[in-house]
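Table S2 (continued). Query chain:
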Amino acid sequence: MRVPGLMRFVVGLACAVAAAQATSADLLSIYRDARDADAVYASARAAYAAGQEKLPQGLAGLLPNVSASANTQYNNRDLEFRPPVAPGFQSGTSRYNSNGYAVTATQPLFNLQSWLTYQQAANQVSQAEATFRQAEQDLVLRVAQAYFDVLVADNNVTLAAAQKTAIAEQLAQAKRNFEVGTATITDANDAQARFDLSVSQEIAAQNDYEVKRQALAQIVGKPPATLLPVRADVPLVPPSPNGMEQWVEQAMNSSLQVKAAQANLEFADKDVARNRSGHLPSLNAVAAYNESAQGAGVQIGPGFDSATKYVGLQLAVPIYQGGLVNSQVRQAMANLDKARQDLENTKRTVAFNTRQAFLGVTSGIAQVQALKAALVSTQSSLDSTKLGKDVGVRTQVDVLNATQQLISAKRDFAQAVYGYTLSALKLKSAAGTLGEEDLAYVNQWLAK
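Corresponding output:
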């Protein structure tokens, strides 16, 4: 009769596990949700689309410009001649219509400013593309950071609850020992103080967990499902190549931040030449067709239709513009110097971030290995302390201290694993090579 009940329990447990797996989310699925919903990334995508329009706008200054115009008007003219009036001239009122239209085509033949503007547009498109690609990498990092922050916070909640449970057990035992006279009131008070502190820590951990979940929800646009944690046996792979300066050199050649700053410098350099060309003449080819018609009236003679066609060249020579061009040149030169310094600062920042990420990976490996050994030693220390207390060579306080050391070791180990994983992604980002495939690789480290 017990077997059916046991079977129902097993089936129910299996269904619960399957339901939990069905509602769990991994790093890659969270990233894909964020790619569709994140407002920061959507803004960067729109800015990139806007930046691409700079090129056709710059090209428009080199292509023909065709315009058409038309007019029509009703005229009411009162004409009165002053004496003496010559024969044949007659005062009176004329009412007539006049209308016309014109089509004009202008083709720039020589306009250095327009040519340099077109070249600047190409630099702006390159900068917009590099900025957008950087936004893509930033999205990967932001998702990974928010994902791991939730896992760390969730782990802290679990450890805080475990710590409270352990201290509660020690508190109950301390009170019993005090009641029977085998422990002092000091042991009971110390256990009570630690228990009260553990309650506060658990509340803080739960609050931090909710904050981290909301931060992730802000990126993905909805409350996230249960997140799959990182396995404890994450493969600790050193950077390849395993040389810091090699990564820095790669970052100088591939970093999207450096490419954006370089494009901005090239734009500023052309801007100096473009403003200097404000002193130069421009030459355009012009073709036009004008047609007009006018009604008859007193003193204006009979009505007429007129058609005019012409083709010619127009030369414009700037002579004096109140010092505007010289001021614009000085401004452009100052902006060029700023762009040069911005590029240098970007290179230094990228080099620093690359070295920091490289050290984060290499030191993260050593830290994870050391903390894995610490887990074993702190667990052994707790077991030995409990045994020592049973035989009277250790106190209740010693047991509580050993328990907290184990909890701290577990917390530090989990944070070290997540920190190593995130540093591996940051290193690829610093080198300008981070992509979804790297996130998919890290996704294999999750405990599915």
